[in-house]
């Protein structure tokens, strides 16, 4: 069972009568339980791929299966439905809704499925505990640090039991200590069986994933697996690299 | 359930900017409040006008003598003008739809008892006058037919005259002295207090009944006659009138207009002198009702304009809000909000704004009644002279239908003017919305 199947995926934009070919036929699969880092320089098409994987956009050609759902031919409403049921977004800038509390923010994807019962609320509280924010349930985003906000976002991404967590430069705004904590959380989630796809341009972050997919000029450049040893070494290195005197 | 949450969310978002929300609401608020208030005041004025006109009697026709224009008067001496007793008899005998007719003669006179004096109006009339003018007798009795035929020297006092001339004694049986005619009239009755009647256009002055003394018209004709001379500032002025007014009561209200036409025709000989006028209260009531409709239309126009302005205010703020919250819209879309979810979110906000504005407006509009009464009391105490008579009698009356209608209209305004910004929000590209700073 694949969390995500990509076949000859192309995406073209028309910008002022000029056609930009952002993806020119990319194919790879993400099995359930995988931890994939997508890398590539700007212009490589990684943002485009991210938007397609997140069902925010539709491919020009090719096949894109999330689980067994064929996303390529869906209407706007169906895409929204898939986003609320089967995708967990984690953004670089957290993207929490300012007027909602921690628990309410975690609940947003369920809200758009019409699931508002006490049971759902309990699940949100449980997830808040899971990411270490059990004592901040009724705080608002402005009352939280960046790392805490990102934890809320991660809890939110898990609330709908998604095919995969889609993290877009999830540690880009965080200091190295917090980055480390978030990556450790991803490791834990992955070891619990969660599928994670993360887009990053930092090698230290990519080293922590099980697998690194590199894009260049809209094409797949490489698809390599990180050995268990190298991942552990990377995690160790990250700890050692923390500034001296910080705790 | 979902709607409750959406509503709660909308209120929460609006409360993030309380001042902005309040200012947005202000347009609708003022619109609704002013419409309810205006309607209440105009309804009050209309009620008062109708009440005053109705007190003249819907089934009556009044023919009054009015001074002719100066160029119709003789060079010297006194020119007789106005209604004649012969005409009174003629009307009574020839117009079949007339049930009763009252001849009236009014003269400004001085009344005395002991050392107390009242400047008042001596009214010569028949017994029916009390009934038609809705005067009620407090003590004693009104003039009787017998007294009229006998040309008895009796009089009936208005309550204020009685109170001034006889503060300590019972006026019944006492005699009031008229120094201008060296004449005495014995008091046989005292009336209850009565409000002033309406002034109607140019055709009729407001009638104050409070300085009146009523005597039988035949007594007046015999004792005083038709010519009255008044001395003012060293010179004499006088008038010669047989009757000041004839009040006709028609058998059926339906006959009022045709009878009025007949009466005008019968009195055509006065056309040259222009010395009479015919007043038909029924027509005045209809005019007043027409005026009320005009007020309603005017209020509706004011309402439409101010609600339009309020609606544009809401649209303006909603557009700003949508732009400001582009990021939030992107997040919501990414997390699974459909376009219609976004539309309903912003529609609910616009609806809440306008409904809250409408509700506060209704409360303020309703409270304009006690406010108006209080203001009038304040003005009456501090500037009693400057208060127009219309204002001092009017009590605003809330038009019940104006409340649900204005509430509904403000809701509709919110939805209509909120729709465009909401659709704009929903149609944003989620990818670009997410990237928005």
Mean model confidence by pLDDT of chain B:
85
Gross morphology of chain B is elongated
How is the biggest beta sheet of chain A arranged? 6 strands, mixed
Determine the N-to-C terminus distance of chain A: 43 Å
Number of domains of chain A: 1
Low-pLDDT stretches of chain B:
none
The parts of chain A where pLDDT drops under 50 for at least 5 residues are none
Number of helices of chain A: 8
Describe the overall structure.
The complex is a heterodimer of chains A (247) and B (437). Chain A is of the alpha/beta class. Chain A has a single domain, classed as 3-Layer(aba) Sandwich (Rossmann fold). Chain A is 36% helix and 27% strand. Chain A has eight helices and ten strands. The radius of gyration of chain A is 18 Å and the shape is globular. The N and C termini of chain A lie far apart (43 Å). The relative contact order of chain A is 0.17. The mean pLDDT of chain A is 90. Chain B is α+β, with helices and mostly antiparallel strands and 437 residues long. Chain B has two domains: 201 residues, no CATH class; 208 residues, no CATH class. Helices cover 53% and strands 18% of the residues of chain B. The longest helix of chain B has 44 residues. The mean pLDDT of chain B is 85. Classes of the chains: A alpha/beta (247), B alpha+beta (437). The interface between A and B is medium-sized, with 28 and 23 residues.
